[in-house]
Amino acid sequence: MMMMQGTVMKITEQGIVVLCEDGKFRNLPHPPSMPKLGDTIPVPDAEITIMRSRWQRLQKYGIFAAALLLLCGITVLFKFIGIPAQPVALVAIDINPGLELFVDGKGKIEKAVLVNDDAKWLVSEQQLKGKDFYAAVRLIINKAEEQGYLNAQAGKRWIWVSVVDFGQSSFDVDAKKIISGNQDYEIERFDANEQQVEQAKKAGLTLNKYIVYEQAKQKGIELNVEELRTHSIASSLIRAGINPEQFFGKSSEKTGSTGNQKAEEISGNGSAQEAQPSGDTQKVALPVQTDTASVLPKGQSNEQTGATKPVADQLENKQRITKDDHENHTAIGHMEKAQPEPDVQEIENPSSEQEKSGIREFELSVTLDQEQKVKLVYKNDKGRIEAKVEKETSQGKERLQGKQAIQYINGVIQKLGLTVKMDKLALTDRVSSALNFRKDQWKEMEVQIEFSNGEKLEFELKNPIRSAEETTREEKREKEKESSEKDDDE
């Protein structure tokens, strides 16, 4: 019998491990004379065969038996219980409510993720789960119309859709099936991948907003990420001086006569900054104007509100400030000086805008921390508009009037998406978002709204979050007082 030499590398209770001349490790049973580590011993071929057959045979049988049992168990389980359908695609939808719909191979909604608070107010996951994809999207659009997020006549007409194919089955979105023939909306569709989904999550953006952000970056446009997180895509583009229809290469024929006229102005002047935004886009842009900051707890002066105007107006204002360095011109003064002051309704055409939004009177008063108060007043008396915005702090008062006040309040109203039967707490949350303060920052809120049909929405409310905190503090003080009195008695 041919013998092979091996060096003893390890000694265990079951046997010894040797490194053979062919470079392989082998397990051998204990020999009659136990060697030491490092000893060279003969390794007969017979021993190699015995060693292999002992453990490997058991391992193979064990693995085979386990696999067989697992296969049988899975087969029975799937047969009697069934397995949930795996999503084949992710469809991300942005209106400003952002939703992610996971679609299975049958075109049903397997899971729905409500990305932001607006989406949670809009619809629940239970209302979408199990529905046909197109039926679910139509439900979302109908709810968005009811709550004021979509209104083609008021300029709220953009829907963004991104499709991520997971590669298990082909799934595509037919825009014609999303909206009915009488719904005049613009649908912008993107093809995306899982890497973009991850990047969007890291940036804290919805998938559509991340894609638009990247597209803008490629065109040399830097969008504000913070604004994208809290405002619609259209609002963020307009804030950056970009017409959404031009950015996405859409025709402006659907915007109506006013929209066409404005589009012609923009085209003729060579840039969107040299003309007022169209009636469509103006309505979307207003909620994100920095006029918000000028009347909210950030202490910014009225002059800073110029950042929300078209770039050409900003440059004109800066030039005036340079020339009249020693004169105290406000932003309103600059605008009055730039052109003759017409009636308010001629500046903004608010009568037609407010007929669309259905608001006749709007009054909002909010008491905040640090003795700050914000008050918004708007009245539309047969087309004659009056508006003012006041902010009161320990350092004094700030006020917006005329055109700026109308622009600002229009933006707030559009952001709130007002309805007669709106829940009070839901409205307070939207007010916090629209006016850019924390939900726990306001103390008292008073709302008086009269709609164009004569119905009213009125309430006064103390912040339930602060009330609960104050109750807890009061109870704690009472307990401490009782404990102190008890100690004194003892």
TrEMBL record:
Compositionally biased region (Basic and acidic residues): 461-484
Chief location bin: membrane
Region: Disordered, residue numbers: 248-282, 338-358, 461-490
Protein name (Swiss-Prot/TrEMBL): RsgI N-terminal anti-sigma domain-containing protein
Domain of life per record: Bacteria
One Pfam match: RsgI_M
Topology with respect to the bilayer: Single-pass membrane protein
Compartment(s) of residence: Cell membrane
Keyword field: Cell membrane, Membrane, Transmembrane, Transmembrane helix
Keyword Secreted found: no
Comp. bias (Polar residues): 268-281
One cellular component term from this protein's GO annotations in UniProt: plasma membrane
Domain RsgI N-terminal anti-sigma: 4-52
Organism: Paenibacillus validus
Transmembrane segments: 61-81
